[in-house]
Amino acid sequence: MSAASSAALAVEGISKSFRLGRESFQALRGIDLALAAGEFVSVVGPSGCGKSTLLRIIAGLETPDAGRVTIGSSTPAETTAAHRLGIAFQDHALLPWLSVAENIALPYRLAGMTVDQARVQELARLVGLGDFLRARPRQLSGGMRQRVSIARAMVLKPVVLLLDEPFGALDLVTRRHLNLEMQRIWGELGTTALLITHSVDEAVQFGNRVFVMAARPGRMHAEFAVKLPRPRDRRVTASPEFVALVQKVAAALDDATAASTASGMPG
Amino acid sequence: MARVLEQGWLRSLLGFALFFILWETAGRTGALGASFPSLSEIATAFDTPVKRGLFTRSMAVTVHSSLIAFAVGAAIAVGLALISAVLPSLENGIDSLASGIYAIPAIAFGPILILIAGPETTPIVLGVLSAFFPIYGAFVSGLRFTPSAYLDLSGALGASRARAFLLLKVPHAMPALIDGLRLGAPGAILGVVLGEWFGAPRGLGVVIVGSMQNVRIPQLWAAALLVVACSLIAYFALSALHRLCVRRFAW
Ligand SMILES: Nc1ncnc2c1ncn2[C@@H]1O[C@H](COP(=O)(O)OP(=O)(O)O)[C@@H](O)[C@H]1O
Ligand SMILES: [Mg+2]
Questions:
Q1: Which of A131, A208, B59, B188 is deepest in the core (most CB within 10 A)?
Q2: How high is the pLDDT of residue A266?
Q3: What is the 8-class DSSP label of residue A5?
């Protein structure tokens, strides 16, 4: 029995090519990934290595050329049709014409379900926006917008949470602060989660495991287990163990980037 | 003084005042020819109750027709835009139909329309035709260019097409729709006035043609300026609405 069959999220042998004019180029080749229930896995990789494509395939927004994705015992299409997927993007994709509360409640309305106001308020409080329920996204800072988008991703109690560089557009200070907050939130909710990031620090801080991807074609390059205590607050992130692991992952990322360049297109 | 000039409306007001002063001067000196009257000369078109009555009656007819033309044109435009967005198989057909309607030269078509629809209805029909296209075009492009992030969101959340349409696409397209309405309103007035030229019984267009035939220069200008005023009022009112709508629906 393979590890994948008992996983909350299993990605097996995913490959994906895109047409580029008359040519076709391989964005992903033979990706395997398995997340146990409640596990938080981070993926880092050079830009353009296919991280977002992998996430979009898991979310059912793209179809792979080969391989399959299983969420619990369902396909991505079945999971989205059951409204059990949570997703947050770098571009928070909030609707400017809705209030914070309405944005968080949007998944209910898109799913045709009655809005659970208590749940909406609970999540708003959890992400620290309990006093901003009626505010418009335009009136919020970048960090607050991302909190709304993460609350929105969590509101339907998804079986898997997919995060595509949700902190990528934020300044460093906001990002640090939000990282800690999100760890606390995730600690409370315990959802199985896949985080894509280009920050090694962030990957190690969040992940039970960290995967490093290489590009052209996008593939798994290295995997690290993170056995540091939680919450990974400043005490942990300043510890020699954390720093050493970050350096190891960063070295692997450098390796992966070099490997990508070497196997890449000329020029 | 500089502080005062920073007020936008004050600057507009000053601009208008300057424009009117130049106009009055040009008219009085005859700098632009005998057919270019001064403002005070144009004002003589309103100097008796009978003359004023003619203008109020004509303007009431033109405004009424324009409102009907605008409402009907907007309704058809919105309806067709929604149909083409919901039924992609009809998209190309409806686009061609819309451009076809737009391409009809009203001038050539007017006299035929008089025969078919009659002189009372012709202004409204031409008004509908010219209001329709900008509204249709703006709303359709607003509905078509939904940000891909919204589509990803609705896909990942398993939204039905109908819900994604009503909750994401339509609200996103609201500023574009109001923008179209703002361009369609002067179009409706233009179409109506043009339609009135082709022998309508009443309206500012009728006054324009009549004054031209009888060489009543101040009356001709007065009627033309009233048409311009109606257009501007409609345009600025809808521009204000557009600003509100952008504040409500966009970043
Ligand atoms: N829909 C698409 N059509 C063509 N090429 C695409 C498409 N989506 C992504 N790509 C290409 O696939 C590669 C991987 O993209 P992406 O998954 O966004 O990378 P990452 O998120 O790691 O930066 C890039 O070279 C990108 O240009
Ligand atoms: Mg990406």
A1: B188
A2: 43
A3: G
Please indicate whether residue A261 or residue B20 has the higher confidence score (pLDDT). Answer: B20
pLDDT, residue A263, reads 59
Any CB–CB contact under 8 A between A214 and chain B?
no
The answer to whether the CB atoms of B157 and A96 lie below 8 A apart is no
Which residue minimizes the CA distance to atom 18 of ligand 1?
Answer: A52
pLDDT in the model for residue B106: 77
Closest in B149, B164, B250 to A110, CB measured = B164
CB contact B4 to A (< 8 Å): no
Contact between A35 and A41 (Cβ < 8 Å): yes
CA separation, residue B233 to residues B136, B182, B192, B226, B239 (Å): 22, 11, 16, 10, 10
Domains of chain A: 9-84+159-263 (3.40.50.300), 94-157 (no CATH)
Residues with CB under 6 A from ligand 1: A 18, 27, 45, 47-53
Residues 6+ apart with CB under 8 A from A200: A44, A246, A249, A250, A253
Query: Which amino acid residue places its CA nearest to atom 8 of ligand 1?
Result: A53
ipTM of the complex: 0.90
Give me the pLDDT at residue A145, please: 94
Residue type, B180: G
pLDDT grade for A267, boundaries at 50, 70 and 90: very low
**What is the residue whose two structure tokens read 């006035």?**
B193
Q: Check: CB of residue A162 under 8 Å from CB of residue A192.
A: no
Could you count the other beta carbons within 10 Å of the beta carbon of residue B8? 8
The amino acid sitting at B172 is H
> For B155, which of A80, A82, A89 is closest by C-beta distance?
A80
The full set of domain ranges for chain B reads 60-249
Q: Which fold has domain B60-249?
A: MetI-like fold (1.10.3720)
